[in-house]
Specification:
Layout lengths: L2 E2 H13 L10 H14 L4 E2 L5 H6 L4 H20 L4 H12 L2
Antiparallel strand pairs: 1-2
Helix pairs in contact: 2-4
Length: about 100
């Protein structure tokens, strides 16, 4: 089995900082949009089993490397939050425009 270690690392990072990102919508669709977007911005790192993900994650112990990943996650969360593509976000957008 081939695993993209960055997917696991970014999911963990997102879980850790999710409440601090202050996203307008935190439905599963928006969360998946954030993860998909950020995974497209980082270089994939493939391993052959789940246990080896920790070796890749150890490379991000360096604060600068982890900060770089966190900045990318924040940027993607803001984009999705500002432009939700879910039913909740679209509904909220329609509701706001009808009150103007």
């Amino acid at each position: 089995m081939v695993i993209n270690a960055m997917e696991k690392i970014m999911k963990d990072l997102f879980s850790e900082y999710e409440h601090k990102l202050q996203m307008k919508c935190t439905c599963e669709s928006c969360k998946e949009d954030v993860l998909a977007m950020v995974l497209n911005k980082v270089q994939p790192k493939y391993v052959t089993n789940e246990e080896k993900v920790m070796y890749i994650k150890a490379g991000y112990v360096d604060k600068q490397e982890m900060t770089t990943l966190l900045v990318k996650l924040i940027e993607c969360a803001k984009l999705v939050s500002d432009n939700p593509y879910c039913k909740t976000g679209k509904k909220a957008e329609v509701d706001q425009s009808s009150t103007v």
